[in-house]
Amino acid sequence: MIIDLSRITSFILFFLGVYGLIARRNIVKSIISIGIMETGIILFCVNINRSMATTPPIGYGTADPLPHALMITAIVIGVAITAAALTMFIHMYHRYGTTNWVTAKERRGK
Amino acid sequence: MIRVSSFIMDHLYILVLFPIVMGSIMFILPKKVYKAYMLSVQAIMLFMASLLFMQLWEGNALNHVIRLGSNDIHSFYGIYMKLDSLSVIMVLTTVIIFTLCVGYNLQKTYTNKNFLFLFYTLQGLICGVFMAGDLFNIFVLMEVSTLIVSILIMYKKDSRSMYDGMMYLLTNIVAMTFFLFGVVLLYERFHVIYIVNPFLDPMTAEVIVDSPFAILKDNPSIAYLPLAFIYTGICLKAAIMPLFSWLPKAHGTPGAPSVVSAILSSVYVTIGIYLFIVISRLFSEYINVYPFFMIAGIITAILGIVFALTQKDIKLILAYSTVSQLGLVLFAFSANAANDIATVGAQYHLVIHAIAKCTLFLIAGMIVDRYETREMSKIRGVFKSMPFVSMAALLSIFGLIGMPYFGGWYSKAMMATELDMPLYYIFMAINAGTIMIFAKFSLIFFGGVPKTLKKFNEPVIRRIIVVFGALSSLALGIFAKSITENIFQVNTSGYFTAELGFGKFAILAVLSYLAYHFIIAKIRSFDKLSPPDLGFNSVAISIILFFVLILGYMTIFV
Q1: CB B48 within 8 Å of CB B8
Q2: Are B170 and A30 in contact (CB < 8 Å)?
Q3: What's the CA gap between B305 and B297, in Å, rounded?
Q4: Is A63 on the interface with B (CB under 8 A)?
């Protein structure tokens, strides 16, 4: 039961992130949506093969440690990407003066 | 020498870590030793890549897999690295192209230690993707290289490049997020993230454990959702048709140094097709998506040609021709996936396209520097003002369009093996379109030199580099038979002359050239066919549409 709930939640989070990418014109909201998508993936992955009886994979835990290890790397990559994207956004804001994708495309010109 | 070769074969990660470490050491070196340092690092990388190539040439370790850590199957780090024919030749091509670009940039002012650190790291990462043995490592390497490429695109801080770099970064991150979700779903269902076959004992090639994908035989629908996510990510990287709009902006943006555009268009896009080949081969026995990708390849190739013919910017026309060549490779690979010769032809075409396109982008950079404009209508008379460079450009163009005895002829002949009738005509039509693109490109060579052209001589090193690149296209054609036999292990004897003869090529070339000049160049409304300028939200919609399309295809037809 808990596994199905976590799986459903992670799919909902992932597709909420995709909705945010499609429907929001603010650049910062796009970056946030990517973060939400990654959170969904991480939630899904740490719940692989888990039941109420499994303990966390530290020391003599019984859960499968591989997904947890991979997700630590994925979290770090997510942090780095968010940092880089926000820095680029700050530069872009100083250059174009807007946080809107459509206005930025118009100001980029041809 | 043999001991060095076997050392490198057993420690493949050296090719990944060495450029990164050497790039970081550069921060503590004084500025005067930069040139010597750059050249020596590249020389060592070339040496190592050539050793790997020679090992495979002699037939040692065709499917070479190493385990990082120890060789004991129960206590190693869990990371595999592998070599097979396509990996080795792409690693060598990558190192050669990076060497050409480093030489091209030897005297540029923006080649400071930051740029070179990023550049060398990119080299290590791209070599790592070709040698990685499991999907999660591929994800990590691709994310880091996406970040580095987006910084390099914006390096000259031109206004337009800010938008282009941001768009590139976010669209590629979204694609890799889809890829990661697919990998995670695949792990959940099969408990496997390896793309090598670790279930074979490397010493005796006996099966240790049955392949975990065998349950797909009875129930293939388990893998539909993960594969849909993975293919969506891969197809954005490979610039397949609904998902290509990031490529021309990234490759042709004004703020990107020429070497960055050259690397992107030659080597980096090959990673997308390489991943497609790897994933399809892993699942092809159970899930056959080749018809879908055959049609996607045809659409990509034809639309790439149409969009290229409407461009006015010299680098954008090359970027769109990259899109169309990738579509051609995808089409040829998927149409004939069971035929060894056709698949090898498609892979060999990737190599030829990489070298020729890199040379053409470097030449375009030299022309833009000299003429100080990127618009093709203002660039005329390149034959008279830059003769060496025009010769090199002509040789590279011949290599791409398939002039006999150049590389493209062999690869296109191999790709056309056993194509049934309607597909054969489509293939020829795509070739004709490629010739038309370069007919438009070669307009810059003729005509009179503009009077405002300033007189300076390009650095000799740059002329040497582009001529070397052009001669490589020729060499790839002359040695095509021996390369395909020794590296890809296919026997192509006795059939080359039958497929794509001189006569057919000559007729095709002349007809396409005349068709371009007398028909297409005269149609004024042709410019209305220029590609739509998609915003970020539209790109996100196209990604999710492609995902739904491929999931629907797999559910209904497979």
Answers
A1: yes
A2: yes
A3: 12
A4: no
Q: Which amino acid is at B209?
A: V
C-alpha distances out from residue B195 to B132, B138, B187, B500, Å = 9, 10, 12, 36
Give the tokens for residue B248.
């021309």
Q: What span, in angstroms and rounded, lies between the C-alpha atoms of B449 and B379?
A: 8
Query: B316: how many CB neighbours lie within 10 A of its CB?
Result: 21
Q: Which two tokens stand for residue B520?
A: 């297409």
Q: Check B180 against A96: CB less than 8 A apart.
A: no
Q: Is A92 on the interface with B (CB under 8 A)?
A: yes
Nearest to B412 by CA among B421, B399, B422, B395: B399
Token look-up 């129930």 returns B219
A76 to chain B, minimum CA–CA distance in Å? 10
Return the closest-CA partner of residue A88 out of B154, B472, B103: B154
Q: Which two tokens stand for residue B411?
A: 């690869």
Residue A16 sits at the chain B interface (C-beta within 8 Å)? no
**Torsion of Cα atoms, A42 then A46 then A47 then A53, to 10°:** -160
List per-residue pLDDT tens for chain B, 558 residues long.
Answer: 778 888 888 888 899 999 999 999 988 888 888 888 888 999 999 999 999 888 888 877 667 777 776 666 565 677 888 888 889 999 999 999 999 999 888 877 667 888 889 999 999 999 999 999 889 999 999 999 999 999 998 888 788 888 989 999 999 999 999 999 999 999 999 888 888 765 555 555 565 566 778 788 888 888 999 999 999 999 999 999 888 888 888 888 887 888 999 999 999 999 999 999 999 988 888 888 999 999 999 999 999 999 998 888 899 999 999 999 999 999 999 998 888 888 888 999 999 999 999 999 999 999 988 888 888 888 888 888 888 899 999 999 998 888 888 888 888 888 887 788 888 899 989 999 999 999 999 888 888 888 777 777 778 888 888 888 888 888 888 888 888 888 887 777 655 554 456 777 888 888 888 888 877 777 777 777 788 888 899 999 999 999 999 999 999 987
Which class for B43: exposed (0-12), middle (13-18), buried (19 or more C-beta within 10 A)? exposed
Query: In the beta sheet, which residues pair with residue B80?
Result: B67
Instruction: Report the alpha-carbon distance of residue B124 to residue B212 in Å, rounded.
Output: 32
Buried b (16+ CB within 10 A) or exposed e, B77-97: eebbbbbbbbbbbbbbbbbbb
A22-41 residues touching B, CB cutoff 8 A: 22-25, 27, 30-31, 34, 37-38, 40-41
Between CA B430 and CA B305 the distance in angstroms is: 8
ipTM of this predicted structure = 0.96
